[in-house]
Structure formats: structure tokens, C-alpha cells
Amino acid sequence: MADPVGDVVTGEAVVLGLRAASFASRLLAAAIDALVQLLLLGALLYVSRALLSSTDEAATAAIVLAETVLCLIGVPTAVETATRGRSPGKLAAGVRAVRDDGGPVRFRHALVRALTGFFELWALAGSPAIICALVSARGKRVGDLLAGTYVVRERTAAKHVPLPPMPPELAGWAGRADIGRLPDGTVVAARQFLGRATSLHAASRSALGASLADALLGHVSPPPPAGTDPERFIAAVLVERRDRELVRLRRRAARTAELERSLGRR
Questions:
Q1: What is the pLDDT of residue 207?
Q2: pTM of the predicted model, to two decimals?
Q3: What are phi and psi of 169, to 5 degrees?
């Protein structure tokens, strides 16, 4: 089952996933990235021309091609992979690229985006990207469709909603359960659902809770006791996950402090 994020919409049209960036934000980010790439390419071409002035025409053409591929494909791929979807233009516009499930992009996603972008943004002057983004619900360009990504807003006013308390009847089970690595997108959707559950229509609340619980079940063993309410199961998993992370961080801090004390005594 796909992680319910981005597309998760209740009966009241309340979106519980990440918000797609506006067309203007994406256009601004693309323009800045294009300017940075052209400046880098211009600098490389200038230096190579000065250093290789005596090189024959065929070798010069090969060097120019290699530098073009490096600046327009290699650099964008490396930057988006290293920054998890944030290029200079996206940082300036307050957006970033994510997977369709809301998780961070990886090398293959960044490579597909960059390869496709070479043709749709540079070779065809951006016309396919603009047309595709205007007709796509998430503002996706062709590269996003092929890579399974889209661009979301980062600079949004978000109110922190604390998790509910651990359901007492599930405390024992949660403490013994093996909770694997939960997909980032599912966790985001589950937290937002718990924070807004009381404002949802009963039927939408029930259906969405069951969907999110199903998405979490594949990462938890053993399953909760039979007949467990999906919403309380979600709360138990997220609370236990948070508590275990706090314990881990405290142990790491204690080990660091002990190491610093032992080094200081030496």
C-alpha cells in the first residue's frame, strides 16, 4: 500500500499531506537555478579556453560537451542528492523536492529529474515543463512525473500539535512491540490526522484512521490486540516511537558527557 501522504484528503476536502509549491515559487526557483548553472558553465568555459587554447577543435568540442553535462546534469543531481531536494533556487524560494510519499529524494530521483530537465528545460526552453506544471494537480513537470517526485512549500506557518497520551490498554503491547523504520510521509500524515481528528466528520475520521493504521501495520510486529481501534493504535505507535527516540537521545548525551569527563581527567 502506498504511504498516504500528499493525496490524503478527507470528505471535507482537508488535505493532511504536504502542500505543493505554487507555480510562481517553482518558476522563481528554476530561474535562480538556471542562472547559477549558467554562471558556473560560463566560468568553466572561460577557464578551459584560457588553459587549452592550443587544443585541436575536436578535443575542445569534447571538453565543452563534458563541461555542459557536468553543469546542467551532474551538479544539479549532486546538489539535490546531498541536500535532500534543496537546490540554491529552491532554498531561495522556500521550496524543496520530495518523493510522492513525502520522503526525501535520493540519487536516482535527482538523476531522473536532472536528465529530464536537460531536455524539457534547456533543449526545449522549458515549454514542456510549464505546460505539464499548469495541468498537474501538484504542479509537476515531466521530470517529476518520471521520477515520482513533486515540489512542496517549506516556509509555512505550522502549529505544533502534541501527541495524545499513550492509550492505557495498549501501553504493555507497545512497550514490547518491534516498531521498524516508519516512512516519513506516513508519520507526517498520522500526526496531522491525530491533531485534527476531532474536527473531521465521523465517517471521514473512521475511514482515514483505518487507512493510516493499515499503512503502519506493515512496520509493526506483533500486530495490536484484536479489535483495537485504529486511531488508538496510531497514537500508541507514534507515542512509543517518540519515547524510544527520547531514550536513545538521552543515552547518547550521557555517553558523550561521560566521554568528555574521561578525556578531561586524562
A1: 92
A2: 0.57
A3: -70, -15
